[in-house]
From TrEMBL:
Residues 119-222 form the OmpR/PhoB-type domain. Pfam families: Response_reg (PF00072), Trans_reg_C (PF00486). PROSITE patterns: OMPR_PHOB, RESPONSE_REGULATORY. InterPro entries: CheY-like_superfamily (IPR011006), OmpR/PhoB-type_DNA-bd (IPR001867), Sig_transdc_resp-reg_C-effctor (IPR016032), Sig_transdc_resp-reg_receiver (IPR001789), WalR-like (IPR039420), WH-like_DNA-bd_sf (IPR036388). This is DNA-binding response regulator. SUPFAM superfamilies: C-terminal effector domain of the bipartite response regulators (SSF46894), CheY-like (SSF52172). It is found in: Cytoplasm. Its main location: cytoplasm. One of its GO terms (biological process) is positive regulation of DNA-templated transcription. The modification 4-aspartylphosphate is found at residue 52. GO terms for cellular component: cytosol; protein-DNA complex. Residues 3-116 form the Response regulatory domain.
Length: 222
């Protein structure tokens, strides 16, 4: 049974989420502030954390940082704040995905299923991955159809393919591929992602696998 820790300071939302998740055979623990969340995570050992960013004692991004100090448990953040900066900060701190309040419960459940499906043990990811009509071999660094990728394109593609379904922030991609000094050079990403789509997507203008989340980052949809 998948264990989920829900962290939110709204009692009605906690109750509604608990009822819906238990009905779907998840084991659920609740916390209503950041301090309780960190203690519960250590005691409950959840398989997934659903974390509101607007907590009364500790900012949700700090909770993400605290969790990432010792665990790689998947984290979905909830945010009712206007704008995207808090979500970007959470993703940069190590969150796996986000849902904006107010949300439909079915949307959150779909995100939970997606995150738990891809939370596979390290080293179990396939070496060969399909993108449309192309097969990408991460071990051999080849693409079927004699498609040639530059070293930078390979680094970007590998980052996305090794995190299927996960939203990777622009800052993380720029930092990991080009270095910390390029964290704001988002035009680099637009250029290289366009090149990857032209080489790999059946219809580059309507990408089905290399997906843009406007203002946030990119994700690989298997």
């Amino acid at each position: 049974m998948t264990r989920i820790l829900i962290v939110d300071d709204e009692p009605q939302l906690l109750r509604a989420l608990r009822i819906n998740l238990v009905a779907r055979h998840y084991e659920v623990a609740l916390a209503d502030d950041g301090g309780s969340a960190l203690r519960q995570a250590a005691q409950f050992h959840p398989d997934l954390v659903v974390l509101d960013l607007g907590l009364p004692d500790i900012d949700g991004v700090e909770v993400v940082c605290g969790l990432r100090g010792w665990t790689s448990v998947p984290i979905i953040v909830l945010s009712g704040r206007v704008g995207s900066q808090d979500k970007i900060d959470a993703l940069d701190a190590g969150a796996d995905d986000y849902v904006t309040k107010p949300f439909d419960i079915e949307e959150l459940l779909a995100r939970i299923r997606a995150v738990t499906r891809r939370a596979v043990p390290h080293g179990t990811q396939p070496a060969q991955i399909r993108i449309g009509e192309r097969t990408v071999d991460l071990a051999a660094k080849t693409v079927s159809g004699d498609v040639r990728l530059t070293p930078t394109e390979w680094r970007l593609l590998e980052l996305l393919l090794r995190n299927p379904g996960r939203l990777i922030s622009q800052r993380q991609m720029l930092t990991e591929v080009w270095g910390a000094g390029y964290a704001k050079e988002t035009h680099y990403l637009r250029q290289y992602m366009a090149q990857l789509r032209r080489k790999l997507e059946p219809d580059p203008a309507r990408p089905a696998h290399l997906i843009t989340e406007p203002g946030m980052g990119y994700r690989f949809a298997p």
